[in-house]
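User: I'm putting together a teaching handout on how multi-component assemblies are represented. Below are the sequence lines for each component of a complex, exactly as they appear in our records. Could you produce the 3D structure of the whole assembly as structure tokens, so the students can see both representations side by side? Please keep the chain order the same as the input.
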Amino acid sequence: MSGNRHLLALAALATVLAAAPARAQLTEEQVKAAFLPRFARYVGWPAASQPTPGSAFQLCVIGRDPFGRMIEQAAASESIDGRGVQVRRLPSAAGAAACHLAFVQGTAPADTGRLLLALRRFPVLTVTDGRAGPQRGMIHFTIVSGRVRFFIDEAEASERGLSISSRLLALAAGVRQRR
Amino acid sequence: MRLLSRLPERWGNAPFAIVATVALMLLAGIGIILQNEAAYRELQEQQTRVQAEILSAGVAAALDFGDAEAARQSVQAVQVNPQVRSVGVYGRDGKLVAGYGRGGVDPPPRYTDPLPDARGPITQAVPVLIGGERIGTVVLAADPEPLSRRLSRYLVIGLLTLMAVLVVAVLGLAQAVLRRANRQLEERAEALVRANAELKVQVGERNKAEDQLRQAHKMQALGQLTGGIAHDFNNLLTVIQGSADMLRRSGLEEAKRIRFAEAVVQASSKAAALTGQLLAFARRQPLQPEVIDVNALIEGMTDLLDRTLGERIAISTDLTEGACMVEADRAQLESALLNIAVNARDAMPDGGTLAIVTAAHDDQERGPMIALAVSDSGSGMDEDTLNRAFEPFFTTKMTGKGTGLGLSQVYGFASQSGGDVRIASVVGMGTTVTVLLPCSGATYEADAGEEVGRPMPGRPGCILLVEDNDEVGEFAEHLLVELGHRVRRVRSGEQALRLAETEPFDAVFTDVVMPGMSGLELASRLAALKPDLPIILTTGYSDEIAKSGAGGRPVLLKPYRPETLAAAIDQVLRPGSGAAK
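Assistant: Of course. Below is the structure of the complete assembly, with chains in the same order as your input.
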């Protein structure tokens, strides 16, 4: 019973958080932070890389972290097939093998490119921000008409063994389709 | 044929079958419509729900990422359906993210549970779920198909049913009408057959009755005829027999003998005239037609008529100039005229006028004719007398005054000559008898070569006499011998033919009516054998001659007098005369 009440409280909090962007003008970072854990819902990983039952998806923030606590708040409300989303911060690509999603941002655009290159060894959905530089991960945030949108590099994701839901692809500002 | 005849039986229950079929079809049509209508709304709800679910799945990601633009695009895809009245996509907080409304019905800005409304649009609310979590709601309101369109769809079904019903009804009606017509036709045909049979029976009965009536008339006429003949002949025979008996007495004074002989001759000639008139009435008279100018004939007869009619009767004639010629027997025509005149005289015992008029008459059937009308100013005839005027032996005169054969002769002569007789009479005013005779195309030749004076006595010759009647034969033989001729008498044509082959004769005098070879046949055989041998025919009456004539040979009618026989023989024996002309 007490567990249930706890869950209810969590759900209420999540509702408040999710409604937040619609109620007040959110900052760009807040929107991006809210988006990040949600991508997990629309991505399929190779069976070997799936989180074991009961364990959470690993959302890694590699390099610079522009979100801070915002991302923890967003991840807390996310529940995908009963799994939560856990946020980890990594200074480099080392230790990124366990990550499912990775927001990648180096100190400089070239640094971002290097990080992305290092992550290519793992089935990790890489996310980059257009404000940080032209280097693109599988999902690349951009701003269209003052709204946060993203490009999707389906070809790259496919090469890493990831599948991206068509529903997400439908929301993309642009898609580099797999061949 | 068998199939056709069985058809009506099969369709015997047609009216019931038709009504049943029509009722079934109508029920089926109504059933289909009702079921359709009941299932329709349910179907529509399902369709709307499915559409809402599709939209819900489509906008899930958009809602998840708060992408109102993407949600609007999904809504736009739905609004293509014209039946969708309004669409609302609501976020987690119940606020409208994307919406669309048609016809002034916009989706409410905040999500509310749709109220079930059986009449209004069909509204379906479907939650938008992401991983089992509700992140929003899609509300889709669709207009049910307009009633008019549904009705028009049902109308098609109704029309089809109606048409089928009509076809069945028309077929049934046609069948019924046909059957009735057939039945009426059969009835009429039967009635017709019955009527026909009845008519046949009636006609048969009538024919029988007519035959009986005709037979009765015939017997009556025959009785009258034979009675009349017997009466007249008995009178004449009384005179002849009595006179002959007296002649047989010996020691009779010369003067008495001559008087009795004269009586015999006169009675005989009266009897001959009687038979002549009988034959004329029966139209069996051997006619010797010649071309006659009727006007000239009448003029030639005025003296005779004057004498016959007496002084108290005046005769007036009005003869049409240029009246046509007729072809008739002169003696018969004269006789007819005389008979009419005598009747007129008897009708005017106190004197009067006899008018003889000729006029051209154009008959529609028989062509141009001449009308010879004889009118008197006498007592006239009543209708009954008029109707019987032409009957033989019918007379209004005192017994012994008339034979009753006068007008009969006129009638017989006119008919036989291709003409007609008409009689008109008014009691107290007089009578008009009109004889119509057909005009002849032949031209009249005046008797220029009429012989003057007595004919030359002929030379004696050898005569072959053929006569099957012994009395007549003996009499003729005596007569010919008395006239100075040599005579060979035979009793048949065959004998005559054989004799003529072996012996030479100057002339043949033959009877016409004989058993075996007839006189006419003998004449033609002899003509083939000896073309130059003259032949004279004689007969009291011959059917053959009356019908087809004597072939141009001279015919001596019985009873003949010695002078006529002598003249006929002299004629053919006279040198230079044509043999058988």
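A couple of points students might notice: The two ends of chain B are 77 Å apart (CA to CA). Residues 446-455 of chain B have pLDDT under 50 and may be disordered.
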